[in-house]
Amino acid sequence: MTTIPAPNGFIWGAATAAHQIEGGNTNTAHWEFEHAADTTVEEPSGDAVDSYHRFPEDIRLLAECGLKAYRFSIEWARIEPEKGIVSKAQLDHYRRMIDTCHDHGVQPIVTLHHFTVPRWQGRDGGWYADDVVDRFRRYTETATRILDDVEWVVTINEPNMMVNQTEAKIDTEQGVNFPGPSPHVAQVIAKAHHASTEVLKGLGHVKSGWTVANQVYQAVPGYEKERDEWGYWREDYYLEQARNDDFIGVQSYLRTIVGPDGPVPFPDDVERTLTGWEYYPEALGHALRHTWEVTGGVPMLVTENGMATQDDSRRIDYTTGALQGLASALQDGLDIRGYLHWSLLDNYEWGSFRPTFGLIGVDRETFERTPKPSLAWLGDLAQRGVIPAG
Question: Which residues lie in coiled coils (predicted)?
Fold first, then answer.
């Protein structure tokens, strides 16, 4: 395999999200949704993979393979169980996670918000609540109590995916059932992000930004205008909002081909992952170049990239192809600070445990962790400081 040297200080690691791995996250609006009488969720998160209690083992396994960074999220619903009430015990819990990372020589990369909101916030309208920007600012201020030696902080994970999922909601400014992502909610989330980064910049030592789900919009020939219109409120608006941030998190899994009426289906015979997505490792390279262009050259950190599969050799193939695209972008002068694989653990994928993204397998009955060959493979790249190149 041809490789190139990774840049000095290049960050190698893996990522998770609290609701998907902790278990027992009962105070979130998402838990309510999972257990609602009319829920569309296939199965609830339950104990997830019990990482709330087993995080020392998870961090140890990451470190032992040679990876040097762990991106994880802290839970607003645990830290602020009721509006204005802060749990010192839960802050201490997440502080212990940070300390455990440092003890193992692992850089903690902390995400403040990864899809879930507290029950009380959900009942007040979620991102539609009148005072949600101020609430998120106050939550960020609370979180800073444990961030004194954390260098990288993500404010909000994939805001564009959250807004995309509000399409059927009533938007008082845009009308009922606005046919597409709500610009109003997008702008509210952007304000919350900017309020959060303002707090974080005040600490002086934190690099802050948010992560965007890059869909790699490609046009059916002749429909470039339709592609650009389709993608603006679904992706590019959020990239524009990062232009003054310290970094932007690039999250890439797939591509989307747009025709006259929106996305067009892929042929039945293309290889698909366990999520039903097309096998397309080239997406990461495209996502990095598009992000670089739209943001005007904001430093990038790959905060998620991976493949849902039970064939771990195919996971290695996919990641090799993705990293080859990253290497090409580096060689062309793009500022890419690191690569965090999704996910460290097989986990709860927002409705089902079937899509397995993990570098580490987890027995659902005993919670026993079993590192996969892909973990050692990625750790070896990190230890040697090389990136696969085409």
Answer: none
